[in-house]
């Protein structure tokens, strides 16, 4: 039997992935399916850290656009990721998979605070670690949190699970003629301003030579294929 290509991964799940076709919030059926796929990969012995977004509930930039103070709006966005993290962790519990939520913002009655050594310990024990509240700082995104936590836990790759099945020459949701890259270097992705991931996240991953694989969370089996080192989505490399 073939073995996974990675021992430890950082999976970035966009908040919108949890919403499915709903206009807002958390769709239980979609969460069930995603959790089932992650549990399967965990069962292969892969250590999994997850950074969860919050865009299905609140985005700081939208709050700021309607007149809210940007930093305040971003803290609301970070709290939205905590809600998603708790929903995800509970779905893992229903699958009898152990997980822990570690939050970059301290809300200790609700979830554990993020402590790097503790995160690594949980991973070594085979628990899935869900990193909540992004980086804990306004003006950042959960993509950057994924790059940061990926680096901190020594992940071999960041897997960005999103609505599109890779990095395209332009936003495929706006330009139907856009073509998908099979592989692309960080320099090219940054130079061409490809907005699939924010520039801060790309730059951090480039500097520390942490590759990213962008793939569709809506394609059943895609996560497992990426983890097995099969050709899936787009690899962004140094
Ligand atoms: N060059 C590109 N290649 C692929 N996707 C892109 C590109 N430019 C913009 N996008 C958009 O980036 C989104 C992926 O980022 P994600 O963080 O999951 O979404 P959001 O930023 O809306 O939360 C895709 O849904 C896609 O529409
Ligand atoms: O380090 C961080 C991570 C997130 N956010 C806020 O949390 C919101 C939700 O995160 P994001 O938009 O990255 O979620 P996703 O697009 O993955 O659903 C963002 O809009 C920001 O307002 C933040 O301020 N700092």
UniProtKB/TrEMBL annotation:
<comment type="subunit">
    <text>Homohexamer.</text>
</comment>
<keyword id="KW-0547">Nucleotide-binding</keyword>
<keyword id="KW-0067">ATP-binding</keyword>
<comment type="pathway">
    <text>Pyrimidine metabolism; CTP biosynthesis via de novo pathway; UDP from UMP (UMPK route): step 1/1.</text>
</comment>
<feature type="domain" description="Aspartate/glutamate/uridylate kinase">
    <location>
        <begin position="8"/>
        <end position="215"/>
    </location>
</feature>
<feature type="binding site">
    <location>
        <begin position="12"/>
        <end position="15"/>
    </location>
    <ligand>
        <name>ATP</name>
    </ligand>
</feature>
<dbReference type="InterPro" id="IPR001048">
    <property type="entry name" value="Asp/Glu/Uridylate_kinase"/>
</dbReference>
<feature type="binding site">
    <location>
        <position position="162"/>
    </location>
    <ligand>
        <name>ATP</name>
    </ligand>
</feature>
<dbReference type="InterPro" id="IPR011817">
    <property type="entry name" value="Uridylate_kinase"/>
</dbReference>
<dbReference type="GO" id="GO:0033862">
    <property type="term" value="F:UMP kinase activity"/>
</dbReference>
<dbReference type="GO" id="GO:0005829">
    <property type="term" value="C:cytosol"/>
</dbReference>
<feature type="binding site">
    <location>
        <position position="171"/>
    </location>
    <ligand>
        <name>ATP</name>
    </ligand>
</feature>
<dbReference type="InterPro" id="IPR015963">
    <property type="entry name" value="Uridylate_kinase_bac"/>
</dbReference>
<keyword id="KW-0665">Pyrimidine biosynthesis</keyword>
<feature type="binding site">
    <location>
        <begin position="135"/>
        <end position="142"/>
    </location>
    <ligand>
        <name>UMP</name>
    </ligand>
</feature>
<keyword id="KW-0418">Kinase</keyword>
<comment type="similarity">
    <text>Belongs to the UMP kinase family.</text>
</comment>
<dbReference type="Pfam" id="PF00696">
    <property type="entry name" value="AA_kinase"/>
</dbReference>
<dbReference type="GO" id="GO:0044210">
    <property type="term" value="P:'de novo' CTP biosynthetic process"/>
</dbReference>
<dbReference type="InterPro" id="IPR036393">
    <property type="entry name" value="AceGlu_kinase-like_sf"/>
</dbReference>
<dbReference type="GO" id="GO:0006225">
    <property type="term" value="P:UDP biosynthetic process"/>
</dbReference>
<feature type="binding site">
    <location>
        <position position="74"/>
    </location>
    <ligand>
        <name>UMP</name>
    </ligand>
</feature>
<dbReference type="GO" id="GO:0005524">
    <property type="term" value="F:ATP binding"/>
</dbReference>
<feature type="binding site">
    <location>
        <position position="59"/>
    </location>
    <ligand>
        <name>ATP</name>
    </ligand>
</feature>
<comment type="function">
    <text>Catalyzes the reversible phosphorylation of UMP to UDP.</text>
</comment>
<feature type="binding site">
    <location>
        <position position="55"/>
    </location>
    <ligand>
        <name>ATP</name>
    </ligand>
</feature>
<feature type="binding site">
    <location>
        <position position="54"/>
    </location>
    <ligand>
        <name>UMP</name>
    </ligand>
</feature>
<feature type="binding site">
    <location>
        <position position="168"/>
    </location>
    <ligand>
        <name>ATP</name>
    </ligand>
</feature>
<protein>
    <recommendedName>
        <fullName>Uridylate kinase</fullName>
        <ecNumber>2.7.4.22</ecNumber>
    </recommendedName>
</protein>
<keyword id="KW-0963">Cytoplasm</keyword>
<keyword id="KW-0808">Transferase</keyword>
């Amino acid at each position: 039997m073939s073995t996974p290509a990675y021992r430890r991964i950082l999976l970035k799940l966009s908040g919108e992935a949890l919403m499915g076709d709903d206009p807002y919030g958390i769709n239980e059926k979609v969460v069930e399916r995603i959790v089932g796929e992650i549990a399967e990969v965990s069962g292969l012995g892969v250590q999994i850290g997850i950074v969860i977004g919050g865009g299905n509930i609140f985005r700081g930039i939208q709050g700021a656009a309607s007149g809210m103070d940007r930093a305040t709006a971003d803290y609301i966005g970070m709290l939205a990721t905590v809600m998603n993290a708790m929903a995800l962790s509970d779905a893992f519990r229903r699958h009898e998979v152990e997980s822990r939520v570690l939050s970059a913002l301290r809300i200790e009655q609700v979830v554990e605070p993020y402590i790097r050594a503790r995160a690594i310990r949980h991973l070594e024990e085979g628990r899935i670690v869900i990193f909540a509240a992004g980086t804990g700082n306004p003006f950042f995104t959960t993509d950057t949190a994924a790059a940061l936590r990926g680096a901190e836990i020594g992940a071999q790759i960041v897997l960005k699970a999103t609505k599109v099945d890779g990095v395209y020459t332009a936003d495929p949701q706006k330009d139907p003629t856009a073509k998908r890259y099979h592989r692309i270097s960080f320099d090219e992705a940054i130079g061409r301003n490809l907005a699939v991931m924010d520039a801060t996240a790309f730059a951090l991953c480039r500097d520390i030579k942490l590759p990213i694989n962008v793939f569709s969370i809506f394609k059943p089996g895609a996560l497992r294929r990426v983890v097995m080192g099969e050709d899936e989505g787009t690899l962004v490399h140094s």
